[in-house]
Amino acid sequence: MIIALAGVAGTLGGALLTQRGSERAKSREIELVRDHEEMRESRSLRRTCYVELNRDARQFTTALNRHLHVMRERGVEDADSDALDEAKNAHRDRYSEAQMIVPEEVLMRASVVNQALNKVYGQVKRLERGAPGPDETIETASQVQHELWDMLRTMRTAMRHDLGVSHED
Asked: What are all long-range contacts of 73-77, with beta carbons under 8 Å and residues at least 24 apart?
């Protein structure tokens, strides 16, 4: 009788242990799938943010260049200022989004671009008002604006590296 009871208890205990082990394995598998899905979603979110930030920073840079050309060739009209402000606002919105999403390495590069864009924008607006700061001319603003392209390339490289698209350092 004792042997029979031990056999039944062993059989039931073994089944219970097998079931618990199976449940743990399934839980780990579900957790791994969930982690993988979260990583995929995060990467997709960063990719979208990077595309939009890169586009809007380039458009803001181009708008600054166009505005400087307008200032040289003729007087600035409301439509010109509106186009520049739209590009600035689009970049501001994208940069604000990036501050909440992107890793620190990319954010450092994006911050350099953002600061430089705002510096040139400030110079352009002071020149437009006829109240430039010391040593601020259309030529100096154009030179700083031209230097933005290198900063944009550096930012884009950091973004591509984060996404695993480029292995350049």
From this structure: 76/128
84-135: per-residue pLDDT in tens? 899 999 999 999 999 988 899 999 999 999 999 999 999 999 988 888 888 8
What's the whole-number average pLDDT of the chain?
Answer: 85
CA distance 138 to 128: 10
CA 88 from chain center: how many Å?
Answer: 17
Q: Could you give the CA distance from residue 125 to residue 162 in angstroms, rounded to a whole number?
A: 35
- What tokens does 130 get? 């006829």
Contacts 24+ apart (CB under 8 A), 107-116: 108/158, 109/151, 109/154, 109/155, 109/158, 109/159, 110/53, 110/57, 110/155, 112/151, 112/154, 112/155, 113/57, 113/148, 113/151, 113/152, 113/155, 114/57, 116/144, 116/147, 116/148, 116/151
Distance CA 66, CA 51 (A): 22
Question: What's the rounded Cα separation, in Å, for the pair 140 and 40?
Answer: 44
**How many residues would you count in the chain?**
169
